[in-house]
Amino acid sequence: MKLNKHDKTFSDYIRDRDDWTCRRCGRVFGLINGKRERGLTCSHFWERRRLRTRYDKDNCISLCFPGCHTLWEHEKQGDYQEFMLMWLGKDRFDALRERANTHMKRGDADREWQDYYMALKKANLKSKGVISTPEKSSAYPPDGSGGLI
Ligand SMILES: [Zn+2]
């Protein structure tokens, strides 16, 4: 599926939330000469074509590519699911599945994310124009290990 500008802003949001760290192996993607090191992707647990959860913060984590991204997205019922359950807890995990199976029009999904992102941007304008992301992931998984391994 082709990525649009909303996918890009959302991907930036998720990777910033995760402190540019792969949630599986813990590799940190730093800045080199002011430019972000490449290779960290925003992974969708429920695939992107499910529009209701396309821009859902509970549905996405940062994974390095190809390494962890390929490994986990290949078989979502295994370790990836275990991680999601541990991270979200059963109630949030179930609620996410519910949303993933709910229909939403493409335009509505795009608009909902764009509205959220614009509001966030506006709220952050005073702080150097940098988007600061609520719900930083440093606090989870609950054991604070920064990943499963
Ligand atoms: Zn990784």
Shape: globular
How many beta-strand runs? 4
Rounded average pLDDT = 87
Topology pattern, helix = H, strand = E: HEEEEHHH
Q: Segments where pLDDT lies below 50 for 5+ residues?
A: 138-149
Tell me the distance between the termini.
Answer: 31 Å
Bound molecules: zinc ion
Q: Report the C-alpha radius of gyration, rounded.
A: 15 Å
Largest sheet: 2 strands, antiparallel
Class by helix and strand content? mainly alpha
Counted by DSSP, the helix tally is 4
Q: What oligomeric arrangement do these chains adopt?
A: single chain
Structure description:
The protein has 149 residues and is mainly α. It has one domain (5-119). It has four helices and four strands. The N and C termini lie far apart (31 Å). It binds zinc ion. The site of zinc ion (ZN) has 8 residues, from strand 4 and helix 2.
Task: Walk me through the topology.
Elements: H1 5-17, E1 31-32, E2 35-36, E3 40-44, E4 60-64, H2 67-74, H3 76-100, H4 106-124
Antiparallel strand pairs: 1-2, 3-4
Bound molecules: zinc ion.
Summarize the structure.
This protein has 149 residues and is mostly helical. It is 44% helix and 9% strand.
Index terms:
two-stranded antiparallel ribbon; single chain; 44% helix; mainly alpha; 149 residues; binds zinc ion
